[in-house]
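Possible race condition, two jobs.
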Amino acid sequence: MLGLITFTYNISDGLLEIVQTASLEVVRNTVLLTPWDDVFVGTPWDDDIDGLAGDDIIDSRAGNDVVVGGLGDDNINGGDGDDQLFGGAGNDIIFGGAGNDIIGGGDGDDRLFGEAGDDIINGDAGNDTLMGGDGDDILDGGDGDDFLDGEAGNDTLFGGAGNDVARGGAGSDVIEGGVGNDTLMGGDGDDIVDGGEGDDFLDGEAGDDTLFGGAGNDVAHGGEGNDVIEGGDGDDELMGEAGDDVLDGGDGHDLLDGGAGDDHVLGGAGDDTVLGSEGDDHIDGGDGHDTLDYSAFTAAITVDFDAGTASSDEINNDQFENIEAVIGGQGNDVFTIGATAAVITGGRGDDVFIFTVTDNAPALSRQLVHEILDFVVGDRIYVAKYEISRVDERLEEERFEQFYDDLDDGFESALPIRVTHAFYDDMDHTIIEADTNRDNIYDISIILEGVQPELIVGSHFA
C-alpha cells in the first residue's frame, strides 16, 4: 500500500450545496517508464520504478523505494528512506539520500553515493566511484579499477578485482584490496587493511592500525600510532613511522624501518635490510643474510655483535639477533666482533673494528671469517694485540716482516698476524689472519674488500 488518500469535493445546483469526503487506500504497483529518456518524480510513499531503456532522471522522493534505472546512463536520487537503487547497464549516478540504502551500479563506470545512513554499495563491473557518506557502510567495488571512500563511520571496503584505490576515512575501518595492485589508506581510526594479491601500497595513517600486505611486492606505512604490519610473501617495504610498531617482513627480501618509537622488527625468511631508527628497538633478522643499516645517523654508534646491541645518542639502545651484516653511521663508530661471523660497512668517519675470540666461544669461532667492505684511511683494526690501519700510498717493505711478534716471550719467529692477497669479483682483497691465542692456528680471517696488502700497516701493542 502507498497509503491513505482523502478526496473532498462539493456538489451544488446553486440552491443546495453538498460537501462529501471519501478515503481510499492506493495499492503499490511498479511504475514502468518509457524506453526513451525519462524524467520522473516519485511520491512521498514507497515507490517501485523501472526506468527501462534510456538516459533517465529519477527522483523517488521520500519512502522506502525500489528503483531500477535499466539500460542507459541514468541519474537516480533515492531521497529519504531505506531505498534499493540499481543503475543497470550504463554509466550511472546514484544518490542514496538519508536512510539505510542498498545501491548497485551494474555494468558501466558508475558514481555511487550512499550519503547519510548505513548503506550497502556495490559497484559491480566497470571503473566505479563509491562514496559511503555518513554511517557504517559496506562498499564493494567489484570488477574494474575502482575508487572507494568510506568517509565518516566504521566502514567495510572491498576493492574486488582490479587496481583499486580505497580510503576508509574517519572511523575504524576494514579495507580489503583483493586481486590487483591496490592503493589502500586507512584514514583516521584503528583500521585493518589487507592488500591481498598484487603489488599494493598501504597506509594506515592515524590510529593503531593493522596492515597485511599479502602476496606481492608491497609498500606499507603505518603512519601515526602503534601499528602492526605484516608484509607476507614478496619483497616488501614496511615503514612503521611514529609509534611503537611491530613489523614482520614475512617471506622475501624485505626493507623494514620501524621509525620513531620502541619497535619490534622481524625480517622473516629472505635477505632483509632493517633500517635503524630512533627508539629502543628489538630487531630479529630471521632466516637469510640480513643487514642492519645505521647509515642515516651522524652520532658515533657502538655495536657489539656478541651482545647483540647497538647504541648511540640518536638511536638509543637497540637489541638485535640473526643479523649477519651491519652498516655504520656517519660518525666514528666502534664495532666489537667476537664469536659471530660479520660483514661490516663502517660508513663515514674514523671507525674502529675490534676482533676477539673468547675461551668459551664455540669451536666454530676458531674458523670465523669476517669482512669489512670499506676499510679506508682513518679506520683501525684491533686483533691479536695488533693495531692495523691503512695508508694512502703503496709501501715497498714486506708486509709479513712488519707483523712479526718482537716480544721476548719465546715466540720471536711466530707470525700471530698473516697478510695475504686475493683478486676476485674484479677487485683486490686483503686477507688478514690472526692467531689470537698463539697455538699456531689462525682463529680469525678478516677480508678487506677493495684493498691491496701494500696499503696495510700494523703495530704491536701491549
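Job #2 (started ~2 s after job #1):
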Amino acid sequence: MLNLITNSKKSMKRKILQTLLLGMAVFLSGTASAQTQVSGIVRSSDGEVLPGVTVVIKNTSNGVLSNVEGRYSINLPNPQAVLVFSFVGMQTQEIKVNGRTEINVTMESLTIGVDEVVVTALGISREKKSLGYSVAEVKGESLQRVTQENVLNSLAGKVAGVNISSTGIPGSSVSMVIRGASSLTSDNQPLFVVDGIPMNNTLNNITQMGRDNRVDYGNAISDLNPENIESVSVLKGPSAAALYGSRAGNGVVLITTKAGKQKKGLGITVTSNTVFESPYKYLPKHHMFANGNRPYTQDNRPNNGLPYMVIDPSTSGWVGPELDKGIMAYQWPYFDANGDLTATPLVSHRDNYKNFFEMGYTTDNAVSITDATEKIDYRISYSNMQNKGVIPNSDLHKHSISLNSSLKLNDRIRVSSSINFTTSGADNRPAGNRGANPMQALYELNSHIDVRSLKNYWEEDKVGLWQNAPYQLEMNSDGTYSKGDYINNPYFIANEVNNGFKRDRVYGHAKLDWKLTQELAFQLRYTHDQFHEFRDTKIAPSYTNEPNGFYGLTNLYRREQNADFLFSYDKNLGDFNLSVSAGGNYMYQYASNNTTKAKDGGSGLIIPGIYSVSNIAPSNIQY
C-alpha cells in the first residue's frame, strides 16, 4: 500500500512538472511571437514590383514602405496582427498574418468614382469629371499612418507621376517634381498653397559658412504640421495653374488643413508617435589593407632606419600592408603610455561605422481641440517634434500652434480665418557635402584605426586648440619626431563644426464668402506669410579647411502678402453646366539676407573659442 501511495505521488509530481514545462513552453512561444517579423514582396496584378507601398499594422501608426524591389519587412506585436497594404491607384488590402513570416501580396487597380469632388485652384470644389486637367488627391489620414516630420515625405509613393526625393536627414530639404522637369535652370518645384496661402518651396536653403561646410537647413514646407492636414490635391495640367500665374509653371500642390466643422460639439484629440532610426546600409569599405601605396611586409619594406615600417594615416593610398596577418608596424598613436615609439600588430576594426553612429529617434506629440455649432466652428492645435539624429550631436526641434475658425453670419455670408505659428531650430545641423561632413571623416578613416579611440577628440594638453587626430609621423634629423599632415577626427567634426539655426514663421488668412444670388458668389481673401531665420556657424581651430577657427552668422527675413477677389458664376443649362470665374490679385513680396563672417580660409578668430563678430580681425570680416 505504501508503494502504491509513493508511486501515485511520483506520478502526480511528474504530471505537475509536465504541466509547468508546458506552461513555460507556451509562455516562451508567446514571448517569441512578440518578436515576429514578417517580410515579402508586393506586386501589381501584371507582376511588376511596387515600390513605395505603405504597409501598416492595423489600428496602429507602426508601418514601413516597400523598397525599390517591392520588398518590405515589419516587426509585429503578435503573430495574429492584421497588415494593411495601401498604394495610390490600388485597392487597399487587409491581410491577417496568422503566424506566417512571409506574405507576398498582389494589389489590384482601384476604380475611382466619377463623381469624386476635389479641391481645385483658389479652393473651389469641383467634380473630377468636369475638369479639363489631371488632379490627384490624398486624404490626411493616409499621410498620418507613418509619422514623418515633413509632409512631402509622407506623400512619397501616394501620387502617380510625382517624384519626391531628399537626403533622408530629418529637417532637410525635400524636392518634389510633378511629371518631369520643365526648366534646366531652376529646381522645378511646384507652388504650394496652404488654405489659399502661397508658400514658396524653392531649394535655396543650402548655404556655405566656412570652407567646405555646406549645410541644408530645410525648405518652407517643412514648417507645416502633417497632423493638421485634411487633404492634399496635386494639380498637374498647365491649365490647372492658370489662376496662379507663372510661379505655378511646375504645377500646384493645394493643401487644405483641418477645421472644427468636421464634427459637431466639443472634441479633443491627443496623439503621440515615436520613431527610432538607425542606418539601413553603410558605404562599402575594404578591411584588407592599411594606408599605403604598396602591400609591403616586414621582409620587403623600404628601409626607414627603424625596426618596423611606419603607417601614414593621412595618405590617400589604401593598399598598404595587409591587416589581420600578424604584421607589426608603427601606427597612430605611435607611442605607448611612457612616450616610447612602439610597434603594434595591424588589425582591422570592421565596426567603425556601427560604433560611430547612434540610435536616432523622432518624437511627435500633438493635441487639438475642436468645437462646432450651427454658426461657429473652430479648431486649435499644438504640436511639438523632437529629433535626435544618428550622427552624434545632431538634432532638430519644432513647435507649432494653429487656429482655424469660421463664423456663419447668415445663410449667404460666412467669414473664416486661420493663424499658424511655428518655431523650429537646431543646435547643430551636420554639413551635407565633403569637408565638414562627419561621414566623410569617418569614411576616410582606415580600418586599422579604431574609431572609438577618437571619442576624446581634443589633445589632452591642447583642449579647445587642437583636435586629437590621426597624423603622419615625421622623423627629424636629430632623432626626434614631429607631427605631419593629419586627417579630421569624425567626432571633432560632429561636435566642433556647429551649424545652429532658429526659424520663426507666421502664416494665416482671412476670407469672406458671400453668395450674392443662387448662381453668383463672391470671395474676398487676404493671406500673409513671413519668417525670420537666424543661423550661426562655429568652427573650432584645427579643422583642416579652417585651421584657425571660424565664425559667421546670417539673418534671413521674407514676407509675402496677397489680396485677391473672385466672382464665380454657375448656371445649370439642362444637359450643360456653365461655370465662369473672374477675379484679381495683388501680391507684395519682401526679402532680406544679411551675412557677416570671417573670410573662408582666412586668419580665423583672434581668440580661439570665442564666437563673436568682435573676435574677428576687422581686415578679415566679410559681409
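Residues 282 and 353 are 7 Å apart (CA to CA).
Logs attached separately.
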